[in-house]
Amino acid sequence: MQQQQHQQPQKQQIVEAPPQPSLEELVRQMTMQNMQFQQETRASIQSLTNQMGQLATQLNQQQSQNSDRLPSQSVQNPKNVCHFIEVGKAMSRTSTSSTFLVRK
Question: What 3 state SS string does the chain have?
């Protein structure tokens, strides 16, 4: 007996590639990503600037507390009370200003 091998032709599948974005679309996407990156970078720099200012203020306060020198920055007066010392007597009054330079 002779066996005949029947070969079936292989079916080729044609897969279509997804459409490629146009050059204009690629430039638009890249521009949008660049703008977002710039905004995030600006926000990060602003945050770091604020943190550095806070550190400088804290360092200044610690240094002035540990020395006999006046602070280089004005100090917030939380009660809005100012004390004046004159020769021979002391006076007190409420002030409308909330920032004073504290002197010892």
Answer: CCCCCCCCCCCCCCCCCCCCCCHHHHHHHHHHHHHHHHHHHHHHHHHHHHHHHHHHHHHHHHHHHCCCCCCCCCEECCCCEEEEEECCEEEEEECCCCEECCCC
38-52: pLDDT as tens digits:
999 999 999 999 999
Closest among 89, 84, 79, 90 to 103, alpha carbons compared? 84
pTM value? Answer: 0.46
Q: Specify the residue for token string 């204009």.
A: 24
pLDDT (0 to 100) of residue 66: 76
